[in-house]
Write a structure and sequence with these properties.
Shape of chain B: globular
Strand content of chain B: 15-25%
CATH class of the largest domain in chain B: Alpha Beta
Number of strands of chain B: 17
Number of domains of chain B: 2
Shape of chain A: globular
Largest interface: A-B, 25 and 29 residues
Largest sheet of chain A: 8 strands, mixed
Distance between the termini of chain B: 29 Å
Low-confidence stretches of chain A: 1-14, 99-106, 654-683
Radius of gyration of chain B: 22 Å
Helix content of chain B: 40-55%
Strand content of chain A: 15-25%
Number of helices of chain A: 16
CATH class of the largest domain in chain A: Alpha Beta
Number of domains of chain A: 5
CATH superfamily of the largest domain in chain A: Histidine kinase-like ATPase, C-terminal domain
Strand order of the largest sheet of chain B: 10-7-13-12-14-15
Helix content of chain A: 25-40%
Mean pLDDT of chain B: 90
Oligomer: heterodimer
Number of strands of chain A: 24
CATH architecture of the largest domain in chain B: 3-Layer(aba) Sandwich
Chain lengths: 683, 365
C-alpha cells in the first residue's frame, strides 16, 4: 500500500484527480462497468462493518440498487446501516479526501486494506454522472441527522459540500433513527448476476460476518435477506507494532525520520514488536551502529545496514539475531462455530466441517488460516466445488486461479476424501463448497487489484493442513453415511422383506408361516446402533436418540459414549438414563445385559444451541462384540483429550503472565499445537 | 430335441424353489435360492447333446443382503404369477409381467431387465422353458425367405399354411416368438441349405440379387444377436429336416460370439442349449483370412474388440484349432471388416463371386 500512497502523495499537485483515477482505475476497482458497482457496494459495506465493529454495534445493513437509465447504464446505489454515524464535521474528510484514516500506519487486521475507500466511489460517481453523493448521517445523542451532498473539486482534490441541512430521520415504522448512515450515489455501472456479482459479494460477506444482518434489493426489486445468526461481535483486535522481519526499507526510513527517540536501542524496543533489550543491542552491533545513535540522524546506508541486521543478513558471532515472534492477539478469526453458522445460513447441507488453525507467523507477520467445508445434496454434484476465498473477512471474487488459497485447495488429492478430481489435481468436483479465510496483519496480494493472494510457503502449508483435516472429516462423514445406509437396508430386510418371503412361500406351499427369529439372528448376527440427531423446532433443542439392538444369539453388555458440544456451550437436558462425564465433550452410559432380540434406547436433548450447530452425534462403545453404527473407543484418545484439557486449563492461568511471552522460543512455528480433534487421529 | 410340455411338472419344479426358501426359514437360517453359475467359466461341452451346457458350479443367493432378499421375494411372486397363468390358461409378455409387478409391493421389479433375468433364473433352476412359464419375450424374431412351408397357429386358433417364398413380400416370413410344435409345424421344404445372415442390408442384397432361388436356399436374417425363437427355428429345421446351416456374419469378435450362440449355445442360455444350438452349423465368413484374401476395406480393432478377442481365446466354445487360428489372426492383422465391405467390388460381387467361392469350399454350391 505504501507504494500507492507515496505515488499519490507526490503526484497530488501535478495531476487532476480525474487523470489519476483514469490511470489507476484497475486497482481502484472501477475498470469495468460490472465491477464498478461491486466495488462501490464493497466500499460501503466494508465501512459499515468496520464502523459497527469499532462501535460494538451489531450491524444491520441494507443495500438497494436500482436502474436509473438502462440505455446509459446508470445505476443508483443506496447503502444504509445502523452504525454510529459520522459527526457532521468529519463527513467531508471521510467522503472527500484520499487516504483519510489511520489504516495505513497501524499494523492490525482490518478490512479496509483494499481500494481507497468510499472516496473512490464519490469520485467515480462524480466523474461518470457529474452528480454528488448524498450522505445522511445520524449520531447518537443528537436529535437530528445531517443531510448533505458531497462532490469533489477535481482540481483542488477537495470535497465540496452543498445543500447541507439537518433533518429528522425516521425509520419505516416512523420511530426515530437512533444512529446510522445512508449513502446514496449514482454511477455508470452495469448490474450482473453470477459468480462475480453484488449478490455473490454480499452472500460471501454474510458468511464471514455472521453477526451482520444484510438485506439486498436488486434492480428487479427482488429482495434477498441474510439474517444475523449470532449476537457475538468479532473480538476487538489490538494494533501491534511492526516486526523487524516484516518491514520494508521505505517504511523503516520513514520511521527513523519521524522518530523522536534519542537512542537507537530505545527506538528499536519501543517501535517494534519482538525486540528485547538484548536483541536491540545485538541488532546495533550487527548493523555496526552505536547503541546511542539518534534514529533521526541515520544516513540511508545506516538504515540499510539496520534492515540487513533485521533480516539476518548481518550477523553477530556468525548468528542471526534472535527475535521474539510478534504477538498474535492482533488477529480476529471468525472461529469455527461461527463459520459453521455463516455457511449453513446460505447453503443447505448435511455436513459442515470447519477449522480455525492456531495463529502463526510468517516473515514477522502474524496470520491465521480458517477453513470450512460444506457438503450436501443442495449443490450440483457434477460441477467444481464453490471456492469461497476471504482475506480479513473481505470476499475475494476475482482471479481465483492465481490465488494462493486456491492453489492450496488444488494441492490436495480430494479423491481419497470422496470428491471427484481429475488426476488428483485442481479444484475438485462435487456437491460441496470450500471456504478459506486468511486473517493477517499484512495480506500480500499478487497485484494491486488485490484479488489474489501471492505465494507464501507458510500460509500455503497451514491452509493445506487445514484442508487435509477437513477432508478426513468429510471422508468420515461419507463412510458413516454409507454405513448408516447399510444398516437401514438391514432393517428393511428383516422388518419387511423377510416376513414377506415367509408369508409368500408359506401361502404357495399351503403351509403355516414359519417363525423368523432364528433367520433374523443369522442374517444380522450383529449388535447394531442407530443414532439420530435432529433439530426440534418446537423446543428449540437438538434431540438425540440412540438405539442399540442386540441381534446376536447371546446377551451383551456395553458402555456407550457420545460426543457433544460441551465446549461450545451446549447443555444436555432430559437425559433420563444418567450416565457420567467421561471427558470434555464426552458422555458415557453403561448398558447392562441386553438379551438377544432386545434393544435399549438412550435419549437426551441439547439446549443452548442454534439450528445447524450440531447435526451429527458420534457414538463410541466399550465392549467385546463389534457394534455396527458405532466406533470402538480408543482409550488412549480419551486420555489425550483429558490431558489436553488439563493443559488448556493451565495455559489459561499462565497466559496473562508477561514472563510466559518472554519465555517463548522465537521464530518457532509449531503448526500442530492444539489442533488435534476429537478422535480424529486416523490416517 | 423334443420338449416336454407338462404344466404339472412345471409347477412341481417351481415348488422345489419355494421349498428351499421355506425350509431354510424353518431351520432358522436365511432363505436361499441355489442356481448354476452363469459365466463362461462354468460351461462345458456335453458330448451326449453336442452342445455347451452349464457345469456343476453353483451359486447361492441368500437373503443376507437387501438386494438378494428382494430378489428371492420377487421370485416367489413370479412363481405365484406363473401358477395363476397356468391355471387360467393365459400367457403374458415379460414386459407385462414387469408392469404387473407394480402391484407386488416390496416384490416389485426395479427394471425390466430384472424381470427378464429372474425369468431366466427360474428356467435355469427348474430346467423348464419360459414357454412352460407362459412368458413371452418382447424381442422380435427373425425374417425368413425361401421355399419353406410351415403351418402356424394364428390368433383365431386356426392353422395357417405359409410358404416363405410365395406367400410373403420382400421382408419375408416373420418368425413368431413361440416356434414350438404347438405353434409352428414344419410341413415341407425344397432348399439345399439355410443361410443365417447378420445384417439386414446383406439379407436384402441377397434377395434383390435373387440368391435364394438361384442357389435354392433359405435365408434368415438374424438381426444381430439372434433371439431365442430364431435360434430355435434354425435348430428345428436343421434337426427335423436335416438341412445344413451356414452362418454369414461380419468379420469381428462380436460376430464370432453370434456364431457361437447359434452353433454351440449362448452362455446366458446354456441351460437350454440342447433346444437352441445347432452344432453342425458352419461359419462361412467374413473370416480373418477373407479380409486379407479379398483385400476388404477394414477398420482397426478397438480396445473393446481386442478385449473381446482375448476373452474368446479362453472361452471353451472357441477352444478348437480353427477358431484359435482365426482369433489370433484377427489380433495379428488388427483389422475387422463388415459383410457389406464386399460391395467394394460392386453390388453383385457377393452373389457372383464371394458366396459361390465360399460355398464351393463347403461343398454346397
Amino acid at each position: 500500500m505504501s507504494g500507492i500512497a507515496n505515488k499519490m502523495a507526490s503526484n497530488q499537485k501535478q495531476i487532476a484527480i480525474s487523470e489519476f483515477f483514469e490511470k489507476n482505475k484497475h486497482f481502484l476497482g472501477f475498470d469495468s462497468l460490472p465491477r464498478s458497482i461491486i466495488t462501490a457496494v464493497k466500499e460501503a459495506v466494508d465501512n459499515s462493518l468496520d464502523a459497527c465493529e469499532e462501535a460494538r454495534i451489531l450491524p444491520d445493513i441494507v443495500i438497494k440498487i436500482s436502474k436509473l437509465d438502462t440505455k446509459k447504464d446508470i445505476l443508483e446505489l443506496v447503502s444504509e446501516d445502523n452504525g454510529p454515524g459520522i459527526p457532521q464535521k468529519s463527513i467531508e474528510k471521510v467522503f472527500g479526501q484520499l487516504l483519510f484514516g489511520s489504516r495505513f500506519h497501524a499494523i492490525r487486521q482490518s478490512r479496509g486494506q483494499q481500494g481507497i475507500g468510499i472516496t473512490g466511489v464519490v469520485m467515480y460517481s462524480q466523474l461518470t454522472t457529474g452528480k454528488p453523493t448524498h450522505v445522511l448521517s445520524k449520531i447518537s445523542g443528537e436529535p437530528t441527522a445531517v443531510s448533505v451532498n458531497i462532490g469533489l473539486d477535481t482540481r483542488k482534490n477537495k470535497a465540496v459540500k452543498s445543500e447541507q441541512t439537518r433533518i429528522i430521520w425516521e425509520n419505516d415504522d416512523l420511530t426515530l433513527k437512533e444512529h446510522g448512515l445512508r449513502v446514496t450515489t449514482k454511477m455508470k455501472a452495469k448490474y450482473q448476476r453470477g459468480r462475480q456479482s453484488v449478490f455473490q459479494y454480499l452472500r460471501m460477506t454474510s458468511i464471514v460476518n455472521p453477526h451482520a444482518e444484510i438485506t439486498f434489493i436488486d434492480p428487479d426489486g427482488e429482495k434477498y435477506h441474510w439474517p444475523r445468526v449470532t449476537e457475538r461481535l468479532p473480538s476487538k483486535v489490538d494494533a501491534i507494532k511492526p516486526h523487524p522481519h516484516g518491514i520494508e526499507l521505505g517504511q523503516l526510513q520513514r520511521m527513523c525520520r519521524e522518530s523522536k527517540d534519542s537512542r537507537l536501542t530505545v527506538f528499536l524496543r519501543q517501535n517494534f514488536s519482538g525486540v528485547s533489550m538484548r536483541a536491540a543491542k545485538e541488532l546495533c552491533e550487527a548493523a555496526e551502529l552505536g547503541v546511542g545513535t539518534k534514529p533521526k540522524s541515520m544516513k540511508p546506508d545506516d538504515v540499510r545496514a539496520l534492515l540487513e541486521a533485521f533480516q539476518g543478513e548481518r550477523v553477530v558471532n556468525g548468528k542471526a539475531i534472535k527475535l521474539l515472534s510478534p504477538p498474535t492477539n492482533c488477529l480476529s478469526p471468525i472461529e469455527e462455530m461461527l463459520i459453521k453458522k455463516g455457511l449453513s445460513k446460505t447453503i443447505d447441507s448435511k455436513f459442515i466441517a470447519t477449522m480455525t488453525r492456531a495463529p502463526t507467523v510468517s516473515h514477522g507477520n502474524p496470520f491465521q488460516v480458517e477453513v470450512g467445508l460444506i457438503f450436501g445434496e443442495g449443490m450440483a454434484a457434477d460441477k467444481h466445488v464453490e471456492v469461497l476465498r476471504f482475506a480479513n473477512r473481505v470476499p475475494l471474487m476475482y482471479q481465483q486461479g492465481g490465488c494462493l488459497l486456491t492453489k492450496a485447495i488444488e494441492s490436495v488429492d480430494w479423491r481419497q476424501y470422496g470428491l471427484e478430481q481429475a488426476g488428483g489435481k485442481g479444484v475438485p468436483k462435487g456437491p460441496a463448497a470450500i471456504l478459506v479465510h486468511l486473517a493477517s496483519t499484512n495480506v500480500q496480494f499478487t497485484s494491486e487489484a488485490k484479488e489474489a493472494l501471492s505465494d507464501n510457503g507458510f500460509v500455503f502449508e497451514e491452509t493445506r493442513k487445514a484442508m487435509l483435516e477437513m477432508g478426513r472429516g468429510l471422508r468420515k462423514h461419507l463412510e458413516k453415511k454409507k454405513k448408516m445406509a447399510k444398516t437401514r437396508e438391514k432393517f428393511e430386510l428383516i422388518n419387511d422383506i423377510l416376513p414377506a418371503i415367509a408369508e409368500k412361500s408359506a401361502s404357495i406351499l399351503e403351509r403355516p408361516v414359519p417363525d423368523l427369529a432364528g433367520s433374523i439372528t443369522r442374517i444380522m448376527s450383529a449388535v447394531i446402533c442407530n443414532e439420530t440427531t435432529t433439530w426440534n423446532k418446537e423446543t428449540k433443542q437438538t434431540d438425540v436418540s440412540i438405539t442399540l439392538f442386540n441381534y446376536t444369539a447371546r446377551a451383551r453388555s456395553y458402555s456407550l459414549l457420545v460426543n457433544w458440544p460441551e465446549k461450545s456451550g451446549g447443555e444436555m437436558v432430559g437425559n433420563e438414563r444418567g450416565g457420567r462425564k467421561e471427558a470434555m465433550g464426552i458422555w458415557g452410559w453403561k448398558i447392562e445385559t441386553l438379551e438377544p432380540g432386545q434393544n435399549a434406547v438412550l435419549e437426551y436433548s441439547l439446549s443452548n444451541l442454534e439450528k445447524g450447530d450440531w447435526t451429527e452425534t458420534e457414538v463410541f462403545f466399550r465392549g467385546s462384540q463389534d457394534v455396527i453404527g458405532a466406533t470402538k473407543l480408543d482409550e488412549k484418545m480419551l486420555e489425550d483429550i483429558r490431558k489436553q484439557e488439563d493443559i488448556l486449563n493451565q495455559a489459561e492461568n499462565v497466559a496473562s503472565d508477561e514472563e510466559f511471552q518472554e519465555g517463548f522460543e522465537p521464530g518457532v512455528v509449531d503448526g500442530d499445537s492444539g489442533q488435534t480433534t476429537l478422535f480424529g487421529g486416523e490416517n | 430335441m423334443a420338449r416336454v410340455n407338462d404344466p404339472e411338472l412345471t409347477k412341481a419344479r417351481l415348488h422345489l424353489v419355494v421349498e428351499e426358501m421355506y425350509d431354510r426359514i424353518v431351520k432358522g437360517e436365511p432363505p436361499t435360492m441355489t442356481l448354476p453359475v452363469r459365466t463362461k467359466n462354468n460351461i462345458g461341452f456335453d458330448s451326449k447333446l453336442g452342445v455347451y451346457k452349464y457345469g456343476k458350479k453353483r451359486s447361492t443367493r441368500d437373503a443376507t443382503s437387501l438386494g438378494s432378499a428382494k430378489n428371492l421375494l420377487r421370485a416367489l411372486h413370479v412363481v405365484e404369477f406363473i401358477e395363476e397363468m397356468i391355471e387360467a390358461g393365459k400367457s403374458s409378455t415379460l414386459r407385462e409381467m414387469y408392469y404387473i409387478s407394480e402391484g407386488w409391493g416390496l416384490g416389485k421389479f426395479g427394471s425390466q431387465n430384472e424381470s427378464n433375468n429372474l425369468a431366466e433364473d427360474l428356467e435355469v433352476v427348474t430346467s423348464c422353458l419360459r414357454e412352460d412359464f407362459k412368458l413371452r419375450p418382447e424381442e422380435d424374431g427373425a425374417r425368413m425367405i425361401g421355399d419353406i412351408t410351415v403351418d402356424e397357429l394364428n390368433r383365431r386358433g386356426q392353422w395357417m399354411r405359409i410358404n416363405a417364398r410365395d406367400d410373403v413380400g420382400d421382408s419375408g416370413y416373420g418368425v413368431p416368438y413361440n416356434v414350438e410344435s404347438e405353434k409352428i409345424r414344419l410341413i415341407e421344404h425344397d432348399v439345399k441349405f439355410l443361410m443365417a445372415i447378420e445384417t439386414g442390408g446383406m439379407f436384402d442384397r441377397l434377395i434383390e440379387n435373387g440368391f435364394d432361388e438361384e442357389y435354392n436356399c433359405g435365408l434368415i436374417h438374424l438381426k444381430g444377436q439372434p433371439a431365442r425363437s430364431t435360434r430355435r427355428i434354425i435348430k428345428r429345421m436343421n434337426e427335423e429336416w436335416d438341412i445344413p446351416v451356414v452362418v454369414f456374419l461380419d468379420g469381428d469378435p462380436w460376430s464370432f460370439r453370434i456364431f457361437a450362440s447359434i452353433a454351440y449355445g449362448a452362455i446366458k442360455t446354456a441351460h437350454i442349449s440342447e433346444y437352441l444350438a445347432t452344432p453342425s452349423a458352419t461359419y462361412l465368413g467374413i473370416t480373418a483370412d477373407d479380409i486379407l484374401a479379398y483385400d476388404l476395406p477394414s477398420d482397426d480393432l478397438s480396445k473393446k474388440d481386442i478385449e473381446a478377442l482375448n476373452a474368446e481365446l479362453s472361452d471353451p466354445r472357441f477352444a478348437d484349432g480353427w477358431w484359435q487360428d482365426q482369433i489370433n489372426m484377427m489380433l495379428e492383422v488388427n483389422q475387422k471388416a463388415e459383410q457389406q465391405s464386399l460391395a467394394k467390388y460392386g453390388l453383385d460381387f457377393v452373389t457372383d463371386t464371394y458366396l459361390p467361392e465360399k460355398l464351393g469350399e463347403m461343398g454346397l454350391s
